[in-house]
Amino acid sequence: MDVSQYLEIFLDETKEHLQNLNTQILDLEADPENMDTVNEIFRAAHSLKGMAGTMGYKRMQALTHDMENVFSEVRNGNIKVHPEMIDVLFRCLDALEEYNNNIQSTADEGTNDNEPLIKQLNEILDGKAAEEKKEAPKKAKKTAKTEEAVEEKWNDINLDDSQIRVIQAAKKQGKNVFGLNVVVQESCILKAARAFLVFKAIEEKGEIIVSWPSAQDIEDERFERDFTLIVVSENSLDVIIKAAEYVSEIAQVTGAELELEKVKSYRPVEDIEETDKAKTNALAKAEDKSKAAAKTEKKQAPGKPVVNRTVRVDIEKLDVLMNLVSELIIAKNSLVSATDQEGSANGAIDEHIEYLESVTTSLHESVMKVRMVPIESVVNKFPRMIRDLSKNLGKKMELYMSGEETELDRTVVDEIGDPLMHLLRNSADHGLESAEVRAQRGKPAVGSIFLDAYQDGNNVVIEVRDDGNGIDTEAVKEKAIERGVITPEQAATMAEKDIINLLFLPSFSTAKKVSDVSGRGVGLDVVRSKIESLSGEVEVKTKLGEGSTWTIRLPLTLAIIQALMVVVGGEKYAISLGSIQTIEDIEPGEIKLVQGKEVIHLRGTVIPLIRLNEIVDVESTKSPDANLVVVIVKKGDRMAGLVIDELIGQQEIVIKSLGKYIKQCKFISGATILGDGEVALILDANALL
Amino acid sequence: MEQLTTTNNLSVADINSKEAMETIQFIVIRLGDEQFGIDIRYIDNIVRMQRMTRVPKVPEYLKGVINLRGEVLPVISIRLKMGYEPDELTKATRIIILKLEQEGNVGIIVDEVKEVVTLTGNEIEKLNYDNKDGKVRFTNAVGKHNGELISLLDLNMITLEENA
Question: Is residue B43 very low, low, confident or very high in pLDDT (cuts 50, 70, 90)?
């Protein structure tokens, strides 16, 4: 069977299941007794196995099969969760992830059989088996999943009083009541659809009173390979089994006359003398009842996720949509500028254009929202990472996360994982002190690392914080002098902030020992360049002995921004509104000189001036004694005043790349097309600071 | 550089062997008094001179960016790139939009677009330079057409970035 068309879905779902397993096993480690977690793990492992099997990935299937066995034993209470087991399980997940990566890049799972892991898993199972033999042999029968166990599964169904009553009534009327067990073929991909056909086929011959799992669960494919039904019919058992077997991809249908006395949940229900009418009513309601049963069942298993109504959309399709919205906004801008030139003679047109503007803006917002995904998908892997780090480094630490639901553009979320991982590793390795030092300093033995995300205006802020040692600026200084980055004289006059910024230089690492966690000196500069490539910025605040906070600030959207249009030397430029604080009118006399540089004193702050015309190499069109228009921009807590010639106004602009060909220019972050078709460059205020 | 030379040799070798009898179309352009040919397969579009936005802090030959149906494209003056006199803009001046694999689309300014010629492999003579003098060459072959010689531009060299 050709399954290539399912490959993408398979990869996506495998990733989800693996992430889910990671999280759940972490939970399990914290709370080994929690049966809900065990069940959830079992379910995820089972679906993984099924999917891998269907797709023909035998090694993956073999490994998940053994994992599933372990979980199944845990679920049955035959083995206890212990730390070694958790370690083995995590290694299994890593192996599975490797399979998944191989499949993603080559459509093949690779040749690693992971025998040691399978052996370890079996050892866990054997350890339990040895214990178990001493116990009753009865349990062994249960674990050995034999066909006999399948055969009379209907006797395990929980029947409520009304269902028992319906069955009794049917029997009284001389109808046949059967228990049926339907097994779907292992290779079957659309289990729910097959099950639906079986339901339909049987309902033509009789009435389905009870199904397990419930009809709703079956519809949502929340069942394994088989399901059990209780059917009332006037036809014989053979007719019904044939009808069910007629559906393709059904492996096996077994059935027998249902004897209420054998049903485990059976308890004698008072035989209320009901009128015939009531009985038929009850029969008709049987379907509703089973649905009601499904509801109660759901309440019993609170861990079951509520299925959201979602559609998976290819990110490329969203990109196309986004591009179209960009084009629309450009077209709208041209219309606006065209009518401006006409001289607003026609009020009606203005009104329509305003309406068009508000529609395009909300269209843009909704398309942006569609592209937004919670950062959860990225940060979810971190608790596991910190756990591993904690073991590797021999330091006790705990990761606290908040704001996982904060949303960012998909493209940003995809890129942000690595920088965050670097920062967390950094905190774990360099930040947190060893246990002895912590004890000396009177800090709790377990180090804390925090990962907080929140939205702040048009930005999303992600903070990585630790209660460790903080950055030792003296050590950084020494290292920088040693490496020849700065001279001792420079070091003496450097502000603390500038010293910390040295950390972001390429190949600068203060780790005394090179570990495989960090210390190769490639971390922080990569972090910074990555975040800057996403138009974001990274900052660090630190206090020696108390810890550090790394703050990453990212723009919500990348493609369309609100910008201030300005004129410098006759040329138009755009400055992102996000970085602008205020716009000031400054008299030439207010400009002071500090160390040969122009500054202004504004409401208690000294702000350096940057003459934009010098930056972009043009002559200013303004006379030197006229008042200056100064745009105050801010990056973190650094400010600067950009001197421009003229203000045009605020505008929604679509960011276009300048192409690969032009890349020398650091302070130009892109270009945009104005309403009249002219190209204006976008100034990156952050790069100017 | 090494990589570039090898790819050049390859393309010329291509012309000589496989496509000896096949024909290639070239667009003939004028720069001053000289005629150059550009392989039509690399040409996306030819547009009139239009308003250009200057980009600061880039080499002089990079004249700026234009808006071509919603895309922002860089435009190069090949006159400046090849060390000729600066462009004189006339009615005949055109921007030829080249589609390049690596750099994406790039525009080059030419004085005039004259005609399209079809050359067979035999009419193309590749030029062998020894790279000893270290000079950058902008042509890699000469085409013979109706008794005239057309220098065939090496587009890799035209768009090669100078290490500024």
Answer: very high
Name the residue among B129, B150, B146, B153 with its Cα closest to residue B1: B129
Give which of A338, A336, A342, A370 is closest to A355, Cα–Cα: A336
Name the CATH architecture for the domain at B2-158.
Beta Barrel (2.40)
Which positions of A are annotated as active-site residues? 46, 68, 426
Chain B CB contacts of A610 under 8 Å are none
In chain B, what residues touch A665 (CB-CB under 8 Å)? 55-58
State pLDDT tens for residues A219-257: 777 777 788 888 888 778 787 777 777 777 777 788 877
- Does the beta-carbon distance from A665 to B159 stay under 8 Å? no
The SS3 call for residue A595 is coil
Q: How large is the average pLDDT for residues A466-493?
A: 80
pLDDT at A47 over 90: no
Q: Is there a contact between B53 and A679 if contact means CB atoms under 8 Å apart? A: yes
User: Min CA distance, B72 vs chain A (Å)?
Assistant: 6
User: Which pLDDT score is estimated for A275?
Assistant: 44
Identify each DSSP E strand in A343-396 by its residue range.
372-374
Are A508 and A540 in contact by the 8 Å Cβ rule? The answer is no
Contacts of B103 in chain A (CB under 8 A): 659-661
> Helix (H, G, I), strand (E, B), or coil: what is residue A255?
strand
Residue of A462 and A192 predicted with greater confidence: A462
Q: Would you call B72 and A659 a contact, using CB atoms and an 8 Å cutoff?
A: yes
Per-residue pLDDT at A519 exceeds 70? no
Within 53-82 of B, beta carbons closer than 8 Å to A belong to 53-59, 62, 65-67, 70-74
B111-137: pLDDT as tens digits: 999 999 998 888 888 877 655 555 557
Chain A partners of B53 at a C-beta cutoff of 8 Å? 571, 671, 678-681
Asked if the Cβ–Cβ distance from B74 to A661 is below 8 Å, we say yes
Q: What residues in B contact A574, CB-CB < 8 Å?
A: none
Could you please report the per-residue DSSP string of A609-650?
EEEHHHHTT---SS-TTSPEEEEEEEETTEEEEEEESEEEEE
CA distance, residue B103 to nearest chain A CA (Å): 6
Does residue A132 have a pLDDT over 50? no
**Strand residues in A358-470 grouped as ranges (E):** 372-374, 397-402, 407-409, 447-456, 459-466
Nearest to A566 by CA among A636, A645, A509, A480: A645
Cα–Cα distances in angstroms (integers) from residue B35 to residues A86, A115, A376, B43, B83, in the given order:
75, 70, 61, 17, 16
Residue with tokens 């250009």: B52
- Residue of B53, B81, B158 to mutate when probing chain A, most A C-beta within 10 A: B53
Distance (Å, whole) CA A213 – CA A185: 17
Q: Which residues pair with A44 in a beta bridge?
A: none
Domains observed in chain A: 4-145 (1.20.120.160), 148-300 (3.30.70.1110), 315-373 (1.10.287), 375-555 (3.30.565.10), 560-688 (2.40.50.180)
* A interface with B, Cβ–Cβ below 8 Å: 327, 330, 571, 615-618, 656-662, 664-665, 668, 671, 673, 677-681
Average pLDDT value for residue range A552-560 = 75
Angle at B116 between CA B112 and CA B121, to 5 degrees: 130
B104 to A659: CB separation less than 8 angstroms, yes or no: yes
pTM for the structure as a whole: 0.49
* Alpha-helical regions (H) of A502-597: 523-533
Distance CA B38, CA B139 (A): 10
Predicted confidence band of residue A150 (pLDDT cuts 50, 70, 90): very low
Start-end of H helices in B107-158:
155-158
